[in-house]
Amino acid sequence: MPAFTTPALVIRRADYSDYDRMITLFSPELGRIDAIARGCRRPKSPLVNAVEPFTSGEFQLYQNRERFSLEQCQISDSYFELRSDYDRLRHGVYWLKLLDTAILPETPAPDLFITTLRALAHLNYGEMPPELVTLAYELHFMRLSGLSPRMDACMRCGRAIDGDARFDVELGGTVCLNCRSDAPFISNGARRIIMKLPRTPFDKFQLVNDRPEWPEAARLFRDYVNRRMHMERFAPPLPEENGHNENL
Ligand SMILES: [Zn+2]
Predict the structure, then answer these.
(1) What is the pTM of this model?
(2) What gap in Å lies between CA 40 and CA 36, rounded to an integer?
């Protein structure tokens, strides 16, 4: 396929030469595509807006052996509000970093693609606190990557868990309070959020906002995501927790 068109989201860009840039696209059917955008840094280039991170649309590409170049783009959304709101932007940048870590060439990920666009719409246009949208995105992202932690049984003794527990990132799930563990405590409410919400649509996350345990779930799950994805500890701020007792 020398020339083809695909829907995609720009997740990264880097200057390449005086007038060119390399961009990384996330395509639902083709996965990661690194492409050169020739001339896009010239002021009058039609590609000038197409090479910005968060731009989504229909991208027309040309393939020559292993190399891709961007020919044209029909932008469908630039998520423009993000760029003027530093707090929301930091959350969005973190998501793109997650995608950059996870997406592979020639590996379709249509569900993750749709989920990402939906989440970006909430982050850009919605009313939910950005910390909550990020928790929602992380939970969906890890499920779609096949990396959800086990939250309903003890990773040591195998018994079902139906209450407070510990959350062991290394073991990939909960440890019951009868087993020895130095892992952090997790309340039943936070445990249930991490268990149930990866399958809850984004517009229902508003309900979680009223639950006092979601900041705890956000903190514990952030740690899980960063360690599983081998990410450095750069990440947007976490929601504030009402100082309840962490030590059982
Ligand atoms: Zn146990």
Answers:
(1) 0.92
(2) 9
Fold of 3-80: OB fold (Dihydrolipoamide Acetyltransferase, E2P) (2.40.50)
Q: How confident is the model at residue 248 (pLDDT cuts 50, 70, 90)?
A: very low
Q: Which tokens sit at 63?
A: 């393939």
In the reported structure, the alpha carbon of residue 141 is separated from the centroid of ligand 1 by a whole-number distance in angstroms of 28
pLDDT digits (tens, 9 = 90+) for 46-94: 888 889 999 999 999 999 988 999 999 999 999 988 888 999 999 999 9
Amino acid of residue 223: D
In the reported structure, the alpha carbon of residue 215 is separated from the centroid of ligand 1 by a whole-number distance in angstroms of: 25
Alpha carbon of residue 130 to chain centroid? 12
Query: For residue 12, with 0-12 CB atoms within 10 Å meaning exposed, 13-18 middle and 19 or more buried, which class applies?
Result: middle
Burial 52-68 (b: 16+ CB within 10 A, else e): bbbbbbebbbbeeeeeb
d(CA 147, ligand 1 centre) in Å: 21
Per the CATH hierarchy, to which homologous superfamily does domain 127-228 belong?
A: Recombination protein O, C-terminal domain (1.20.1440.120)
Q: What's the gap in Å between 166 CA and the centre of ligand 1?
A: 10
- Given strand 185-186, what is the order of strands in its sheet? 173-175, 165-168, 185-186
pLDDT in tens, 195-222: 999 999 988 888 888 899 999 999 999 9
Taking a C-beta distance cutoff of 8 angstroms, is the pair 173, 155 a contact?
yes
CA 113 and chain centroid, separation: 10
Kindly give the distance from the C-alpha atom of residue 153 to the centroid of ligand 1, in angstroms, as a whole number. Answer: 8
Domain definitions of the chain by residue range: 3-80, 127-228
Question: What is the spatial distance between Cα 115 and Cα 197, in angstroms, rounded to a whole number?
Answer: 13
